Amino acid sequence: MKEFRVSDIDTQVSSRIIKSAVTPRPIGWISTTSADGVDNLAPFSCYNYISSDYPVVMFSSKVKQGGKPKDTAWNVANTGEFVVNVVTERLAEQMDQTSAELPADESEFDFARLERADSTHVTPPRVADALISLECTNIESLDIHDRAVFFGEVETFHIDDEVLVNGKVEMDHLDTVGRLGGPYYTSVNRMELTREF
Protein backbone atom coordinates (compact mmCIF):
# COMPACT_ATOMS: atom_id res chain seq x y z
CA MET A 1 0.00 0.00 0.00
CA LYS A 2 1.35 3.46 -0.95
CA GLU A 3 1.27 6.44 1.36
CA PHE A 4 0.58 9.95 0.09
CA ARG A 5 1.37 12.71 2.56
CA VAL A 6 -0.81 15.69 1.62
CA SER A 7 2.00 18.18 2.25
CA ASP A 8 4.19 16.32 -0.28
CA ILE A 9 1.76 16.10 -3.22
CA ASP A 10 0.24 18.61 -5.63
CA THR A 11 -3.25 19.93 -4.84
CA GLN A 12 -4.57 18.43 -8.08
CA VAL A 13 -3.43 15.00 -6.91
CA SER A 14 -4.95 15.35 -3.44
CA SER A 15 -8.16 16.72 -5.00
CA ARG A 16 -8.53 13.66 -7.25
CA ILE A 17 -7.82 11.27 -4.37
CA ILE A 18 -10.38 12.80 -1.99
CA LYS A 19 -13.03 12.97 -4.73
CA SER A 20 -12.46 9.28 -5.51
CA ALA A 21 -12.33 8.17 -1.87
CA VAL A 22 -15.47 10.00 -0.74
CA THR A 23 -17.98 8.35 -3.05
CA PRO A 24 -20.70 8.18 -4.02
CA ARG A 25 -21.41 11.82 -3.20
CA PRO A 26 -24.96 13.18 -3.31
CA ILE A 27 -25.47 16.07 -5.70
CA GLY A 28 -26.97 19.30 -4.48
CA TRP A 29 -28.50 20.82 -7.62
CA ILE A 30 -28.76 24.33 -6.31
CA SER A 31 -30.93 27.09 -7.69
CA THR A 32 -30.43 30.71 -6.69
CA THR A 33 -31.55 34.11 -7.92
CA SER A 34 -29.16 37.02 -8.21
CA ALA A 35 -29.88 40.48 -6.83
CA ASP A 36 -30.53 41.46 -10.46
CA GLY A 37 -33.20 38.76 -10.81
CA VAL A 38 -31.25 36.20 -12.88
CA ASP A 39 -31.98 32.58 -11.97
CA ASN A 40 -28.89 30.38 -11.58
CA LEU A 41 -28.72 26.58 -11.39
CA ALA A 42 -25.60 24.51 -10.72
CA PRO A 43 -24.69 21.05 -9.38
CA PHE A 44 -22.47 20.65 -6.29
CA SER A 45 -21.13 17.29 -5.15
CA CYS A 46 -19.71 18.79 -1.95
CA TYR A 47 -23.20 18.60 -0.47
CA ASN A 48 -24.98 16.77 2.36
CA TYR A 49 -27.35 17.19 5.27
CA ILE A 50 -25.93 17.84 8.73
CA SER A 51 -29.07 17.83 10.86
CA SER A 52 -32.30 15.91 10.41
CA ASP A 53 -34.72 16.67 13.28
CA TYR A 54 -34.24 20.33 12.43
CA PRO A 55 -33.24 19.93 8.78
CA VAL A 56 -30.03 21.70 7.78
CA VAL A 57 -28.02 21.06 4.62
CA MET A 58 -24.59 22.28 3.56
CA PHE A 59 -22.71 22.74 0.32
CA SER A 60 -19.34 24.17 -0.55
CA SER A 61 -18.30 26.12 -3.60
CA LYS A 62 -14.77 26.46 -4.91
CA VAL A 63 -13.57 30.01 -5.46
CA LYS A 64 -12.70 30.76 -9.10
CA GLN A 65 -9.17 31.67 -10.11
CA GLY A 66 -8.60 35.30 -9.26
CA GLY A 67 -10.56 34.98 -6.02
CA LYS A 68 -14.03 35.54 -7.50
CA PRO A 69 -16.82 33.36 -6.10
CA LYS A 70 -18.99 31.28 -8.39
CA ASP A 71 -22.43 32.68 -9.20
CA THR A 72 -24.17 30.34 -6.76
CA ALA A 73 -21.94 31.35 -3.85
CA TRP A 74 -22.25 35.03 -4.75
CA ASN A 75 -26.04 34.80 -4.89
CA VAL A 76 -26.39 32.94 -1.58
CA ALA A 77 -24.01 35.37 0.14
CA ASN A 78 -26.03 38.32 -1.12
CA THR A 79 -29.60 37.03 -0.85
CA GLY A 80 -29.41 34.36 1.87
CA GLU A 81 -31.60 31.94 -0.10
CA PHE A 82 -31.25 28.80 -2.20
CA VAL A 83 -33.15 25.69 -3.27
CA VAL A 84 -31.72 22.16 -3.43
CA ASN A 85 -33.25 20.05 -6.20
CA VAL A 86 -32.75 16.27 -6.01
CA VAL A 87 -31.14 14.80 -9.13
CA THR A 88 -32.68 11.62 -10.53
CA GLU A 89 -31.73 9.61 -13.61
CA ARG A 90 -34.22 11.32 -15.90
CA LEU A 91 -32.64 14.70 -15.10
CA ALA A 92 -28.97 13.61 -15.10
CA GLU A 93 -28.07 14.93 -18.56
CA GLN A 94 -29.68 18.31 -17.94
CA MET A 95 -27.99 18.49 -14.53
CA ASP A 96 -24.64 17.92 -16.24
CA GLN A 97 -25.41 20.69 -18.75
CA THR A 98 -25.94 23.16 -15.91
CA SER A 99 -22.32 22.76 -14.81
CA ALA A 100 -21.34 24.88 -17.84
CA GLU A 101 -19.72 28.25 -17.08
CA LEU A 102 -22.19 30.84 -18.37
CA PRO A 103 -22.08 34.62 -18.08
CA ALA A 104 -23.75 35.87 -14.89
CA ASP A 105 -26.64 37.37 -16.86
CA GLU A 106 -27.60 34.04 -18.48
CA SER A 107 -29.67 31.36 -16.75
CA GLU A 108 -28.79 27.67 -16.71
CA PHE A 109 -32.54 26.94 -16.56
CA ASP A 110 -32.84 28.33 -20.08
CA PHE A 111 -29.53 26.86 -21.29
CA ALA A 112 -30.58 23.32 -20.25
CA ARG A 113 -34.25 23.86 -21.21
CA LEU A 114 -35.55 23.23 -17.72
CA GLU A 115 -38.95 24.39 -16.57
CA ARG A 116 -39.11 26.49 -13.40
CA ALA A 117 -41.60 26.05 -10.57
CA ASP A 118 -42.32 28.79 -8.05
CA SER A 119 -41.04 28.37 -4.51
CA THR A 120 -43.30 29.38 -1.64
CA HIS A 121 -40.92 30.72 1.02
CA VAL A 122 -37.81 31.80 -0.92
CA THR A 123 -37.26 33.67 -4.18
CA PRO A 124 -35.22 31.15 -6.25
CA PRO A 125 -37.35 28.84 -8.39
CA ARG A 126 -37.36 25.07 -8.15
CA VAL A 127 -36.66 22.64 -10.99
CA ALA A 128 -40.22 21.76 -11.97
CA ASP A 129 -39.40 18.12 -12.80
CA ALA A 130 -37.37 17.44 -9.64
CA LEU A 131 -39.14 14.85 -7.50
CA ILE A 132 -37.94 16.54 -4.30
CA SER A 133 -36.85 20.13 -3.69
CA LEU A 134 -35.76 21.83 -0.46
CA GLU A 135 -36.27 25.56 0.03
CA CYS A 136 -33.46 26.88 2.25
CA THR A 137 -32.35 30.02 4.02
CA ASN A 138 -28.65 30.48 4.67
CA ILE A 139 -27.94 30.50 8.41
CA GLU A 140 -24.13 30.39 8.40
CA SER A 141 -21.19 30.53 6.02
CA LEU A 142 -17.50 29.77 6.41
CA ASP A 143 -14.41 30.24 4.28
CA ILE A 144 -12.23 27.11 4.43
CA HIS A 145 -9.08 27.19 2.29
CA ASP A 146 -10.28 27.75 -1.29
CA ARG A 147 -13.94 27.07 -0.58
CA ALA A 148 -16.98 28.92 0.69
CA VAL A 149 -19.21 26.66 2.81
CA PHE A 150 -22.91 27.49 3.24
CA PHE A 151 -25.36 26.04 5.75
CA GLY A 152 -29.02 26.19 4.83
CA GLU A 153 -31.98 25.66 7.12
CA VAL A 154 -34.70 23.84 5.23
CA GLU A 155 -37.89 25.89 5.31
CA THR A 156 -40.06 23.78 3.01
CA PHE A 157 -39.95 20.37 1.32
CA HIS A 158 -41.66 19.85 -2.05
CA ILE A 159 -42.19 16.13 -2.72
CA ASP A 160 -43.85 14.66 -5.80
CA ASP A 161 -46.68 12.18 -5.19
CA GLU A 162 -44.72 9.73 -7.36
CA VAL A 163 -42.25 9.04 -4.53
CA LEU A 164 -44.65 9.12 -1.59
CA VAL A 165 -46.12 5.94 -0.10
CA ASN A 166 -48.34 6.41 2.96
CA GLY A 167 -46.90 9.88 3.41
CA LYS A 168 -43.26 8.71 3.42
CA VAL A 169 -40.56 8.93 0.76
CA GLU A 170 -40.20 5.46 -0.78
CA MET A 171 -36.64 4.93 -2.01
CA ASP A 172 -37.77 2.33 -4.55
CA HIS A 173 -39.42 5.25 -6.37
CA LEU A 174 -36.47 7.64 -6.15
CA ASP A 175 -33.58 6.84 -8.53
CA THR A 176 -31.10 9.40 -7.27
CA VAL A 177 -27.79 10.07 -9.01
CA GLY A 178 -24.44 10.45 -7.22
CA ARG A 179 -20.99 11.68 -8.20
CA LEU A 180 -17.86 9.55 -8.35
CA GLY A 181 -14.25 10.57 -8.95
CA GLY A 182 -13.29 12.06 -12.32
CA PRO A 183 -16.08 12.50 -14.88
CA TYR A 184 -18.16 9.62 -13.52
CA TYR A 185 -21.62 9.46 -12.00
CA THR A 186 -23.57 6.57 -10.54
CA SER A 187 -27.22 5.68 -10.11
CA VAL A 188 -28.77 4.00 -7.11
CA ASN A 189 -28.21 0.26 -6.76
CA ARG A 190 -30.01 -0.61 -3.53
CA MET A 191 -28.52 -3.09 -1.09
CA GLU A 192 -30.54 -4.22 1.89
CA LEU A 193 -28.77 -5.22 5.09
CA THR A 194 -30.54 -6.66 8.11
CA ARG A 195 -29.39 -5.15 11.37
CA GLU A 196 -28.96 -7.72 14.10
CA PHE A 197 -28.73 -5.31 17.02
From TrEMBL:
It comes from the Archaea. Its cofactor is FMN. Keywords: Flavoprotein, FMN, Plasmid. GO terms for molecular function: FMN binding. The keyword Flavoprotein applies. Pfam families: Flavin_Reduct. InterPro entries: Flavin_Rdtase-like_dom, Split_barrel_FMN-bd. Residues 20-168 form the Flavin reductase like domain. PANTHER family: FLAVIN REDUCTASE LIKE DOMAIN-CONTAINING PROTEIN, FLAVOPROTEIN OXYGENASE. Belongs to the flavoredoxin family. This is Flavin reductase domain protein FMN-binding protein. It comes from Halalkalicoccus jeotgali (strain DSM 18796 / CECT 7217 / JCM 14584 / KCTC 4019 / B3).
